[in-house]
Amino acid sequence: MQTVTDPAEMQAISEKLRLGRQLIGVVMTMGALHEGHLSLVRLAREQAGIVILTIFVNPTQFGPTEDFHRYPRPFEQDAALARSAGVDYLFAPEAGAMYPEGFRATVSCSGISDLFEGEKRPGHFSGVATVVTKLLHITRPHIAVFGEKDAQQLAVIRKVVSDLNIAVKVLAAPTMREANGLAVSSRNIYLTREQQESAGAIWRSLCHAGERLAAGETGLTELAEATATMIAHESGFRVDYVAFVDKETFMPASRAMKGRSYRILAAVFAGSVRLIDNACFVA
Ligand code: PAF
């Protein structure tokens, strides 16, 4: 595994690989690698001859009160995990190399970026869309793998890639879960053992909503409310939102139509730790 920190060097390597007709897959992360990230690497490995993993804690996607400074950065451990997962290139730039003095450009995607996570975290998706676009230009992949855990992020990225005609195939990898259903996330390390146990209520409640939808319930607003109540009751966490949305546009859905798929989104506070999860169900 070769570690690269300079964007121009990474771009030159990718260009050369492409000229050598190598198929490149990229997995973008902010580090603090866990089993979820490694499953994305495995999917990239299945699809591409060369796998690039990027590690960059992107400052522009954090709000002023969010955890940018305390975000975990176990670089040596991450590099060892990446190497053992079969990553070929680890691209880990410094912030100054990604956003040099005078950097002004941004990528934004209106509509979907203004809802739910976008509404709660102003500027977040513009930060994500900008850095993902930059990382795609730098790593020049044929395939990019993102996790379904961040379903709205994935939808924003798909829209940016499609609207800006970026020649990359975006693949979604299913969410990895702990035994109790808690979605694996870098931020889970902030949770106490009791919070980790209580957090199993999120996935249980989403699955319960899916069962009610499959059984013919059509009032999605009411079902989302009942799910929020179940999460709060079983976990003791404060629910930020629970909502059913159209699975592509993320527009809120209030009435289910038989045979259609809906995504249920949940965001909760376990103390000061914000957890998000989602699932897709057919009515
Ligand atoms: O999902 C993440 O880890 C980040 O949002 C991403 C896609 C690497 C962009 O910084």
Describe the structure.
The mean pLDDT is 97. This protein has helices at residues 7-19, 35-47, 75-84, 95-98, 117-120, 124-139, 151-163, 193-198, 200-214, 220-235; strands at residues 2-4, 24-29, 50-55, 89-91, 143-147, 169-173, 238-246, 261-270, 273-282. The strands form two sheets. The protein has a six-stranded parallel sheet with strand order 1-4-3-2-5-6, with helices on both faces. A three-stranded antiparallel sheet has the order 7-8-9, covered by helices on one side. Helix 6 (124-139) packs across helix 7 and helix 9 runs antiparallel to helix 10 (220-235). The longest helix has 16 residues, at 124-139. With 283 residues, the chain is of the alpha/beta class. It has two domains: 2-173, HUPs (Rossmann fold), CATH 3.40.50; 186-278, Pantoate-beta-alanine ligase, C-terminal domain (Pantoate--beta-alanine Ligase, Chain: A,domain 2, 2-Layer Sandwich), CATH 3.30.1300. 39% of the residues lie in helices and 20% in strands. The chain contains ten helices and nine strands. Strand 5 (143-147), helix 7 and strand 6 form a beta-alpha-beta unit. The chain binds pantoate. Pantoate (PAF) binds next to strand 2 and helix 6.
Brief digest:
This protein has ten helices and nine strands. With 283 residues, it is an alpha/beta fold.
